[in-house]
Amino acid sequence: MATGLKTKISFHKRLLIFLLLSFCFLLLCFFIFQYHREKIFKAEQLNYKLQSFNTQLGNALSDKNAISLLIEKKRKSEFENLRVTIIDSLGKVVFDTEQNNFPFFNHSNRPEVIDALKNGTAYTIRRHSETTNSDYFYSSQKINGYIVRSAIPYNLSLKELLKVDKDFLWFMVISVIVISIVIYIFTQRLGQNINRLRQFALRAEKGEIIDENENFHNDELGEISRFIVQIYSRLQQAKIDLDKEQQEILFHENEKNRIKKQLTQNINHELKTPVSSILGYVETIMYNPEISKEQMFDFIRKIYAQTNRLSQLLKDVATLTRIDEANNMIEKQSIDINEIIVEIINDISLLPADKRIRVSTNINKPTVVHGNQTLLHSIFRNLADNAITHSGARDIFINIIAETEKDYLFSFSDNGIGVESQHLSRIFERFYRVDKGRSRKLGGTGLGLSIVKNAVIFHGGTIIAKASASGGLEFVFNIKK
Predict the structure, then answer these.
(1) What is the pLDDT of residues 360-383, one digit of tens each?
(2) What are the tens digits of pLDDT across the range 310-346?
(3) Per-residue pLDDT band at 228 (split at 50, 70, 90)
(4) What is the spatial distance between Cα 42 and Cα 34, in angstroms, rounded to a whole number?
(5) Per-residue pLDDT tens for 255-287?
(6) Cα angle 22-24-29, degrees, rounded to a multiple of 5
(7) Which residue has the higher pLDDT, 401 or 20?
(8) At 367, which CATH number?
(9) Which long-range CB contacts under 8 A does 119-123 form with residues at least 24 apart?
(10) Which one, of 118, 94, 93, 116, lies nearest residue 106 by Cα?
(11) Hey, which bits of 129-244 come out as E strands?
């Protein structure tokens, strides 16, 4: 049975071939681009000369003798076989240096005439003339309603004139040689390093003992080898840490899903009462046309109250969702807490007398923190609403009780009826109510204090609730500057 060794091209050679082919392809593209650009450049140079001559002819359109003199002078100095044609806007030839030798037809369909009428100037590198049966380089220009066209026979002398300067090819050849040598040297060294690293990896795969302090050469390969040894010796610990991290992530995901599920269930439960009430009032109005205006107005007022409750519930849920799931997108800026408190005091002063409450504060100077205006406002607004609605207090007290280089420590308290100690540990839970029936009657959504806690956490702080010295409820929380 015949056997043989299968030749395998080394990494060095494969990389060298790939880089050389890629470089040659790029050079070929550059050559094609440069060659085309040189051709256009030569053509535009010739067109510029003819356009300048066309301008001179255009300035002498009213004097045929002057035109003839200009043409004769140009033929003697530069273009021996120069042909000039003057065409009106309808395509009729009004002058041509060959008009005595050939019959002329309408020129409105000539490409250089069409483009000149449209753009003002135009040129065609090579086009066959139907009149003289010869190829020409045409340059045309629109002047005073006429098309002035100069043409040079496309012969050997013109080809030489438009011929691309190929001196740059030598530069490209030399560049190819130099860069090929550089690529060869680079790939050879890289291939040697890769081969040494491959041998090292085979040792590690076989489970050979590798000393973490083993000395390697002080080069790129030695640096890579030392790095691999460090990874190899710490792999097991990294795996343990990774498993632990995955377990923590799984726990947080499960906890997050549990909270979402609980929130959904609570929202569904909270929506039932106002939706059922609204539906009942609406059905009563719809199916009882004899209902009095007073009763109808009372039902509409109740519908309005329940609708406001639904609206507030949706706003609170949206705020919590925003903090939970998109807190990295919430913008922060410099906010003065004092301005927020002044605004809340002004709002409270506008409430009806039975809901109005006195506010005392020791914050009477700028208290600037880096945070979100809406969330910071919601902290103090919800605490104030909670005191006004549920505490039965006559006063609330908003004070800074401590200040450090990093944060402010606030106290928000009232002198109301307070909360029994067994409720304090759960007071920040979503939809938790100390007195569920009374809270619903007063229009609370059950999310206000949960928003407060999440907003405080968003600003790098913590919050606790406790009985205040005045007998009411006190919230102590800090906000980072």
Answers:
(1) 999 888 899 998 888 898 899 889
(2) 776 677 677 777 776 666 678 888 999 999 999 989 8
(3) confident
(4) 12
(5) 667 766 666 666 665 666 677 778 887 887 887
(6) 95
(7) 401
(8) 3.30.565.10
(9) 121/51, 123/43, 123/44, 123/47, 123/50, 123/51
(10) 93
(11) 135-143, 146-153
The pLDDT value given to residue 14: 80
Q: How far apart are CA 294 and CA 71, in angstroms?
A: 104
Beta bridge partners of 408: 403, 479
Distance CA 275, CA 277 (A): 5
Residue 379 carries which side chain, given as an amino acid letter?
I
402 versus 159: which is more confidently predicted?
Answer: 402
pLDDT over threshold 60, residue 443 = no
What is the Cα–Cα distance from 175 to 164, expressed in whole angstroms? 20
Give the domain-ending residue among 130, 152, 167. 167
On whether residue 84 sits in a domain, the answer given is yes
Give the pLDDT of residue 219. 62
Contact call for residues 249 and 281 (beta carbons, < 8 A): no
Domain at 147, CATH number: 3.30.450.20
Provide, for the chain, the percentages of residues in helix, strand and coil under a 3-state DSSP scheme, each rounded to the nearest 5. Answer: 55, 15, 25
Residue 471 DSSP one-character state: S
**Rounded distance between C-alpha atoms, residue 99 and residue 131, angstroms:** 10
Decide if 456 contacts 409 (C-beta within 8 A).
no
CB 346 within 8 A of CB 477: no
Q: What is the DSSP letter of 443?
A: T
* Domain housing 155: 12-167
Q: What's the number of CA atoms in the CB half-sphere (13 Å) around residue 317?
A: 19
In 3-state terms, what secondary structure has residue 476?
strand
Predicted confidence band of residue 399 (pLDDT cuts 50, 70, 90): very high
**Contacts (Cβ under 8 Å, ≥6 apart) of 239:** none
Give me the helix-helix angle, 373-386 and 293-325, nearest 10°. Answer: 130
Amino acid at 347: D
3-state class (DSSP) for residue 414: strand
pLDDT above 70 for 422:
yes
Of 134, 167, 200, which marks where a domain is finished?
A: 167
Number of Cβ within 10 Å of residue 259's Cβ equals 13
* Comparison of pLDDT for 329 and 27, the residue scoring more: 27
Q: Is beta strand 395-403 parallel, antiparallel or unpaired with respect to 358-361?
A: parallel
Say how far apart CA 377 and CA 375 lie, in whole Å: 5
Return d(Cα 110, Cα 212) in angstroms, integer.
82
Q: Which two tokens mark 184?
A: 């060869």
For tokens 């945070």, the residue is: 371
| Three-class DSSP category at 481 | coil
